[in-house]
Amino acid sequence: MCVWFIGASSGIGLATAQALHAQGAKVTISARSASALQDWLLNHPGSMAVSLDVTDSIALQEAAQKIIQQNGIDMVVYCAGHYKEQRATQFDLDEILKHQSVNYTGALYMLDAVLPHFLKQGSGHIGFISSVAGFRGLPKSLAYGPTKAAMINLAETLYIDLHPHRVGVSLINPGFVQTPLTGNNDFHMPALITPQEAAQHMLAGWQKGLFHIHFPKRFTRWLQLLRILPYRLYFFVASRLTQT
After folding, report:
1. Each residue's pLDDT tens digit, 99-132
2. Which runs of consecutive H residues, i.e. helices, occur in the chain?
């Protein structure tokens, strides 16, 4: 199996790429960090690394073609992410648009690059690492949350459209994972897990053929319950989740 991880220089993406490589998969990772890519190649014989900025649609097309020609692609996982706290009282349009470009538009560029290949070969799988922050609006998540909500909707729609064409889709919604993205949070992160634990949850979900993979369930199940609350009750609860 040939798997391409996009945005996997650290965190969940890197840990999952390492786990799949250990199981014998032919893994390619892409990221902006040249040192991270070099470390990957040194420590993972037989793998591949392609430098990539997910906000560059042309570069993403070229990377996809290079990987298809050399290894083929059976599965692509979009791991790229940008996160910075923001409230409406400190509205920063540039930061919001940066979130949109990395977290969502880059995923669209990825689809434009790989979907024709998957449809032509009549198989493939697309994984999106999203977040429970996309379930509903949350404090301090004005820039981040909407991009993850868009990704959740995108994955759901893609599943409906692509299932008849034998192209799988999976949506990964982690809770709090110890990564560089969450390292600057100034609030308590319940049920915090390591990237390696997250990777094992993802592999187990893929093995079961799940569309929605969320973890750790002792936390994410509560977030799923919040999705069905009426607005008046939800706003009361959500406004007290993180207060500073």
Report:
1. 999 999 999 999 999 999 999 999 999 999 999 9
2. 11-22, 34-43, 57-70, 93-99, 106-121, 145-162, 195-208, 217-226, 231-238
Which among 39, 40, 35, 38 has a CA at the least distance from the CA of 5? 40
Compute φ and ψ for 191, nearest 5 degrees: 55, 40
How much is the pLDDT for 244? 47
Catalytic-role residue among 78, 144, 159, 231: 144
Q: Indicate the domain borders of the chain.
A: 2-238
**DSSP code, position 159:** H
Alpha carbon distance 139, 24 (integer Å):
42
Architecture of domain 2-238: 3-Layer(aba) Sandwich (3.40)
Q: Annotated catalytic, 144?
A: yes
Helix (H, G, I), strand (E, B) or coil at 17: helix
Residue type, 239: S
Longest dimension (CA), the chain: 55
